[in-house]
Amino acid sequence: MKNKLQVQLRKDTYSRHSNEYEAQVDIKDVVDIDYVINQMILDGISNDKETILNILSRFNQKTAELVATGYQVDTELVSLRPVIKGLLYQKCWNPYINMPSVLISQSKMLIEALSETQVIINEVVVGLDETSKQETKESQNFYISEKSPIFHSKEEPACGMAFRTWLMKA
Asked: Would you place residue 31 in the very low, low, confident or very high pLDDT band (cuts 50, 70, 90)?
């Protein structure tokens, strides 16, 4: 059975080009491990739910332990690689900047599943037109400078670019 992924196109509001859209996946639901196990049982797995949950829980614990001790773990679904975030200024560890983390990348099984996925584009979701955008901005008492993407308040002139101009006397 081929996987099907439903997406909606939305106009890219950050682009200067009027013909660029981004595809947003329609998330059906957020599922947890119990849902996955129930689906495995429906598919005909021979073990009971507690046994499967115990195996998966132990697998997750062992995987976390291995990654936390410096192993790169490939689960055939994803690959987990330990890394340290942040640069060490003058070779000194800073716990506010430097911390252990994990890079997660797709492994063979996930790559194959995604390569067989059919993407179904449902519709183009149209955002607010320019008139309603302007009405919304005016009702919030904000406006956007033509030269800057920074919001400026009409009530408080000493903010944003106006404040910077006043501060720098430029």
From this structure: very high
Selected residue with higher pLDDT from 19 and 40: 40
Local confidence band at 1 (pLDDT 50, 70, 90 cut-offs): low
In one-letter notation, the amino acid at residue 58 is: R
Q: If you ran DSSP here, which 8-state letter would residue 126 be given?
A: P
Task: Tell me which amino acid residue 80 is.
Answer: L
- Letter for the amino acid at 130? E
Neighbours of 49 (CB within 10 A): 13
Strand-pairing partners, residue 4, are 118
119 membership: H or E segment, kind and range: strand 118-125
What sign for the dihedral angle of Cα 37, 38, 39, 44? positive
Distances (CA, A) of 67 to 4, 49, 62, 103, 153: 32, 27, 9, 10, 48
CA distances from 91 to 52, 86, 102, 155 (A): 46, 12, 21, 48
Helix (H/G/I), strand (E/B), else coil: 153: strand
pTM: 0.62
